[in-house]
Inverse folding.
């Protein structure tokens, strides 16, 4: 039974911009910082209404993370904005010491994650950020799937006390979640109930999983699709409940298969409920220039790849 | 003045005793720059800083201090204990298992007086700027103090922060540099020369003053003078000359005591030079 309705196409980063604006209206302690990418991060509405609560740091991401950490000491809730690559790998030690270890209430908001950044190529397409961030003790890692979910997630993390990594993307993609949803950190969303296989997807891959589910239905395979928007903390219960029913799982993410959602699911299943699993993810590789669609296809992140993985994993069921 | 210079010097002597005993007690840690900054910490916490030992993270209405070169934690811990943040007996746990006095300062164990972890170098100035921006948004006109190591200025993040603060008129910020000219691998002049730090910071738009960091009168006056320079659109940089190991003759001026603990004999020689004034922990 499907629980989604396709409405229009929008980018998740605009969902972030809208959510930040709403969070800013709701709580005057919400502040924003950006490293010379205001337009890309869609921060304009927040800046227009709350100019004194916005800090432009220039192209100096390390300084941005440190300043954000310092601002929390005065009770502020800083949202930092830059591309995912510059939000994580470039400033890993700053995040590790000044934010995570110091348990500061900083929201690291990362746009243009993954291959779908497109033509800029591999220097800008980080496929390792989920792994980097989930390894930090205490860090919450969220990768929402559409405009509405990103907006809701942005508003929700403003009310959560502690460091958060929020990952979203550049391209326009289908909007299919509830515009008035209540976002619960760490709570999976059941996209489609099924019995033959569990497809667990995050971020841009959720819509791909839905497309795959429709193709699988034509093949007589009834797929359960679960959206894990919060990679850490993982909704163990939702995953185990589903896998007990279906007996096999395919994980889907726009990220390296090393260190991503798939490995988190594998860790859970290996200890609690050993289950055949296939990974739809990039395979220890950097990206390259191209359109988002071309790249998702070349690197094996399309609906057809999910269908193939499902057929393979069902064949492995005992 | 809350204290006479002599009283402050006596406090500094006790802090120096604590430093060498703490480092000796766990046979690790960084005595050199801790000793060199004992006078600065004494002047700051016992004379200059408007602070409450009933610690809150936010410190609303209080001056805040951030230590960027976290490896000189012994001097900070001893200062905080004698200022009343926690009992001095806890100094005996420095760098030992289950201690709140970690090798480098951290909020993780909730030690009163510490507001952020430091140790991985180059991050403290950015944090201090952030704290200053938050104070400004909160309408709190208190001061933000920071201490940076000189070798630490080789880290690029400092210069991102150095560019940011004057441009954004972060002018309730007084950053001091522990200008001892030494780092682990030798004199900074040989490892990676800092050259004319005053000219560099002035070129970035800071108001730079120079003080002698091992002359109590000079530090107290320098920090009070620095406060009078705030609120005028520029952050203040206090270029503070110190001697690594100051107060212990055989440690003075040498990078060899950056991160080496004294043995029993060396400890006795050091303590013989440092009068016990407030009582050992």
């Amino acid at each position: 039974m499907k629980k989604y309705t396709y409405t229009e196409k929008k980018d998740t980063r605009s969902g972030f911009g809208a959510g930040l604006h709403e969070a800013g209206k709701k709580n005057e302690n919400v502040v924003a910082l950006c490293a010379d990418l205001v337009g890309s991060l869609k921060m304009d509405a927040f800046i227009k209404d709350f100019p004194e609560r916005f800090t432009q740091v220039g192209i100096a991401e390390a300084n941005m993370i440190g300043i954000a950490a310092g601002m929390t000491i005065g009770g502020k809730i800083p949202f930092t904005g830059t591309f995912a690559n510059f939000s994580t790998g470039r400033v890993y030690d700053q995040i590790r010491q000044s934010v995570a270890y110091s348990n500061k209430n900083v929201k690291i908001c990362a746009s243009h994650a993954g291959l779908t950044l497109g033509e800029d190529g591999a220097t800008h397409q980080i496929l390792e950020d989920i792994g980097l961030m989930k390894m930090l003790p205490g860090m919450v890692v969220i990768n929402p799937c559409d405009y509405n979910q990103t907006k809701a997630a942005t508003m929700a993390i403003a009310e959560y006390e502690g460091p958060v990594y929020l990952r979203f993307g550049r391209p326009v993609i289908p909007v299919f979640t509830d515009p008035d949803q209540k976002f619960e950190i760490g709570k999976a969303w059941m996209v489609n109930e099924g019995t033959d296989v569990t497809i667990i997807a995050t971020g841009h891959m959720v819509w791909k999983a839905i497309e795959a589910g429709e193709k699988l239905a034509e093949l007589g395979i009834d797929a359960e699709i679960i959206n894990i928007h919060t990679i850490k903390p993982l909704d163990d219960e939702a995953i185990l409940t589903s896998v007990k029913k279906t007996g096999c799982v395919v994980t889907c993410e726009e990220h390296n298969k090393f260190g991503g959602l798939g490995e988190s699911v594998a860790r859970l299943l290996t200890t609690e409920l050993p289950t055949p699993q296939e990974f739809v993810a990039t395979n220890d590789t950097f990206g390259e220039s191209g359109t988002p669609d071309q790249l998702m296809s070349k690197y094996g992140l399309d609906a057809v790849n999910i269908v193939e993985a499902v057929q393979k994993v069902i064949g492995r069921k005992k | 003045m809350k204290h006479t210079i002599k009283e402050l010097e006596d406090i500094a002597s006790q802090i120096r005793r604590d430093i060498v005993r703490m480092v000796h007690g766990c046979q690790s840690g960084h005595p050199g720059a801790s000793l060199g900054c004992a006078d600065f910490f004494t002047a700051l916490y016992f004379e200059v800083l408007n602070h409450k030992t009933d610690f809150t993270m936010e410190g609303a209405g209080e001056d805040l201090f951030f230590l960027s070169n976290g490896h000189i934690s012994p001097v900070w811990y001893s200062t905080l204990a004698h200022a009343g943040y926690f009992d001095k007996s806890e100094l005996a746990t420095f760098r030992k298992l289950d201690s709140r006095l970690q090798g480098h300062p951290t909020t993780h164990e909730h030690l009163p007086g510490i507001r952020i972890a430091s140790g991985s170098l180059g991050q403290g100035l950015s944090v201090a700027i952030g704290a200053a921006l938050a104070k400004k948004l909160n309408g709190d006109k208190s001061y933000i103090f920071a201490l940076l190591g000189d070798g630490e200025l080789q880290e690029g993040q400092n210069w991102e922060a150095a560019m940011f603060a004057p441009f954004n008129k972060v002018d309730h910020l007084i950053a001091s540099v522990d200008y001892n000219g030494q780092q682990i691998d030798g004199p900074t002049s040989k490892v990676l020369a800092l050259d004319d730090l005053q000219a560099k910071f002035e070129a970035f738009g800071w108001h730079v003053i120079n003080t002698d960091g091992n002359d109590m009168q000079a530090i107290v006056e320098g920090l009070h003078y620095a406060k009078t320079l705030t609120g005028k659109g520029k952050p203040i940089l206090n270029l503070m000359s110190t001697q690594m190991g100051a107060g212990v003759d055989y440690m003075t001026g040498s990078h060899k005591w950056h991160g080496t603990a004294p043995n029993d004999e060396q400890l006795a020689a050091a303590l013989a030079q440092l009068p016990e004034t407030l009582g050992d922990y």
